[in-house]
Each structure stands twice: as structure tokens, then as C-alpha cells.
Amino acid sequence: MHNRAYSQNVPTKTIYFLAGPKDHGAPGRHETKLDLLVLQHCIDSIANVKGVKIITKFLYKRSALDIEDLKGVDALIIESSAESSSALRTHPIFPPSNGNTKTYDKATLDYLAQVDSLHKHGMGIMVLHWAISTSNQKASQYYMDWFGQARLEGYTHNPAGNWVVTPMESGKKHPIMRGVGAFTYKDEIFSRLLVNAGDPYRTDLLSGLAEKTNQGVVDEPFAIASAYEKKGARGILWGGMDYHSAFLNENYLRFVLNAIVWTTGIDVPAGGVKTAAKQLQLPPSTGPNEPIK
């Protein structure tokens, strides 16, 4: 566990990074553990967030329906495969459906109701890359409630290619967009999600175009990133974060760090989050669940 304290008697915020197993992808892609360790290191090395003590935790391959380790947490940052991608546990929050795509057993439903209650009482949730994909209808319902959007089979797609990403007019005044300009980078972005049209709680932040991807041309700009805030509960689905090297892009990294800080309920500083971390040079870790020192 990491502490960043600026003075005594300041508010404390706890950010819990949860990485599912890396179960596919070449080295440098779908690096769930390494991605979140880098982001944890960046948050631990924040240079311009004042007046708050930030505590970070990290866990790889969370498998238990354990509500206790989520209590007292201000934000969950999740990167994993889809909840239905394996008969084994891949998603840190949702267990495998095991063929039942409509609901879960009673123990799971009780546990998910408690997760939902924590969220409604202020625990932010940010879900990254393939973890945005849900096949179980109950999981999808929670996503619609937490994020105002969810994956839809046959509609949502995931083009991989060189993206031109532009801040949207609708989100330019949102705190997450502080210090974030247009950028071009390589990514696979799960996008074109099912949304409630005109949802007052959703703010679209970024649009994207790609001249060449493995799924053809993306020539009509649409929202690829949004923020959701409903009665004090904050949530973000971000379908990017496939290529680990994307952290070398300054605007991309600032967008992600701003989003983490905002999801946690911390004010994003003017100009966006700045970190003293060397993003791709991690200190050694002593074990699979050991935070960076």
C-alpha cells in the first residue's frame, strides 16, 4: 500500500487498482497488470494534487466474491478481459456466467447489490478496455446504471489502428479534459456502445477517427470516451488501453490520469494531472500482488 501525504489532518482518498489475468495478446498488448502498475506508480508520483492524502492499492487476479476488501475504497480502477471470455474468473467484479447469460446465483446477486450500494454511496468505478464487455444481462444492467452505457452484441466494435482523437465540444469544460489536447496514437478501442439518448448524467469527452484499422475505416466521428455522474456516483467506461506503449503519449496519459482522479472524487488541477513518474520504467515488484515500492 502506498501513501502520499502533504500534511496532517487532510482528507484521505483510496484508489484500488484491480487487474484481471493477461489471457491473450502479444507482449506489449493487453498488459492488464503492467498497465495498472504504471498508473498506480503515476498516481503515487503526482506532482500537483494538493490538500488530499492519496492511498493506492493493487491486486492481480481477484477471484473472491469479497465485499470487505472494497469497503472504504473511493475508486475502483479495473482492467481485464470480458466477464464472459473464460469459464475461469477474468473480471475483478463479475464472476463467469457459466452459461447463464440472464442472471447470477443468489450469492453473487447479493454481493453485486453490495457493490452497487458502495457505488451509490460514492465509490467511483472506472472500467478499461475489454472489461467493458458484458454478456450477462445482469452485469450489463449494472453497467447501464453505473456508466450510462454498455456493450451491445453486433453493434459495439473494437477497431485496432492509428486513431486521431479529438476533444468534443460537449466535454471541453469537464474536469477530465483539463490539459488534454488532440492526439494521434495506436490503440484498439472498444467503442460504439449502447447509450440512453439525451442522458443528462453522461458527458461525451473524446471522438475518434481512424483511416485504417483491422475493421476498416472509421470515418464518422463518434464519442469514444464519456464520463458519468449520477447523484454523486461517478463512473467511466474507457474502451482503449490495449497497447502499453500508449502511455508514452502525453495527452493520452493525462486523459487517463485525470479520469482516475475525477472518478475518485478529487478535484482535477488546472492544466491536468502532472506526475513525476517514469511511466514505462517500473521499480521491481516482489510478488504478483505486491504494490510498487
From TrEMBL:
<dbReference type="InterPro" id="IPR029062">
    <property type="entry name" value="Class_I_gatase-like"/>
</dbReference>
<dbReference type="InterPro" id="IPR029010">
    <property type="entry name" value="ThuA-like"/>
</dbReference>
<protein>
    <submittedName>
        <fullName>ThuA domain-containing protein</fullName>
    </submittedName>
</protein>
<dbReference type="Pfam" id="PF06283">
    <property type="entry name" value="ThuA"/>
</dbReference>
<feature type="domain" description="ThuA-like">
    <location>
        <begin position="106"/>
        <end position="263"/>
    </location>
</feature>
